[in-house]
Design brief:
This protein is of the alpha/beta class. It has eleven helices and twelve strands.
Length: 329
């Protein structure tokens, strides 16, 4: 691969651009790309289409010194933080780059906040427009992009952006550095075997995240035929040439939501929030460890995790979201 001059990392110019079958088991895909010290970008937003199955596998395999880049916080960040609290020799985060620290709808980020307060993880916080601009910058191959700066956003004062002056208008602007992920984790409603992806509902910056990353693992609710992609090419939101692996993983975002497939499992999110808050209050890791053992470490894959959730619950989550339509053919 060619060296990326402005980031010190690698770009993806030498990736195979031909169409070939990219399907693989999730464990194999993560094993191929997960390494100590890499930057991982997590797709989705809040409780929408986040790559829970991939995060479980990252935790199961483990890596140290990771930088986590996310457009917004979610249970994914909390899961990684909890794994680090349990065993930092197995999985650890060096820095988190984020635009939204808390998810007020379901939980405060108790575990991640704990690591930040203890100075065990560096925090690089941006506004939502800044994070989007950072992915866009990398996607188009420039070292930074300007955003409008009015000085009112506290998050922008402590990050790696630089205040400058627009050479055309004289207005104050902020230059935000490109985000250069080594690995993107994206969950979508549909993809073909080559990696052409369809996203319905909010795109959540996922196309930019995928295009900015050296490698991209896509988990999908359903693998569809390439003829369907050709019938409606305008529905392709992530093209095949930026995707490295396609993993057929229904319910790959639960307990979060996936538009047109299933709603948020709020009870499971609240359960994990309660466990995290219990640790922060007591310092006792027993409940946290039991959760990880049952949900991740003592099982082989995400399908085993799904088997722990009674069918009526999954069915109800699907029924709650059945009013939203998606196009698969």
């Amino acid at each position: 691969m060619a060296m990326d001059a402005f980031s010190g990392g690698y770009d993806n110019v030498e990736k195979m651009k031909n169409m070939y079958d990219k399907r693989a088991p999730l464990a194999e895909a993560v094993r191929r790309f997960l390494k100590d010290g890499i930057t991982i970008s997590i797709g989705g937003f809040g409780d929408t289409r986040i790559p829970i199955a991939s995060i479980h596998q990252i935790i199961r395999q483990g890596a140290r010194g990771l930088t986590i880049s996310v457009p917004s916080n979610s249970i994914c960040c909390e899961l990684l933080a909890g794994a680090m609290i349990l065993n930092s020799n197995h999985l650890s985060i060096h820095r988190i780059e984020i635009s939204w620290h808390d998810n007020e709808k379901f939980y405060k980020t108790a575990l991640l906040s704990y690591l930040i307060r203890k100075k065990m993880v560096l925090l690089d916080e941006y506004s939502a427009p800044s994070m989007l601009a950072r992915y866009q910058a990398r996607a188009i191959g420039v070292p930074f992009l300007p955003i409008k700066e009015d000085g009112s956003d506290e998050r922008e004062r402590g990050n790696r952006g630089k205040v400058s002056v627009c050479p055309f208008t004289g207005e104050k602007i902020r230059l935000v550095p490109a985000c250069n992920p080594d690995l993107a984790l994206i969950h979508v409603q549909a993809a073909d075997i080559y990696g052409n992806c369809r996203i319905f509902g909010d795109l959540c910056t996922c196309p930019h995240v995928a295009q900015a990353s050296v490698n991209t693992i896509v988990t999908t609710e359903q693998v569809i035929d390439n003829s369907a992609i050709q019938n409606y090419p305008n529905l392709t939101t992530i093209p095949y040439h930026v995707v490295d692996v396609v993993v057929d993983q229904p319910f790959g975002s639960t307990p979060a939501a996936c538009y047109g497939n299933y709603e948020v499992d709020s009870s499971q999110l609240q359960e994990f929030r309660s466990i995290g808050e219990d640790f922060c209050r007591t310092g006792n890791t027993d409940k946290l460890r039991n959760y990880y053992n049952q949900s991740i470490f003592d099982i082989e894959n995400f399908d085993d995790f799904l088997e722990q959730k009674p069918y009526p619950i999954l069915h109800n989550l699907c029924q709650l979201e059945s009013r939203q339509s998606i196009i698969l053919d």
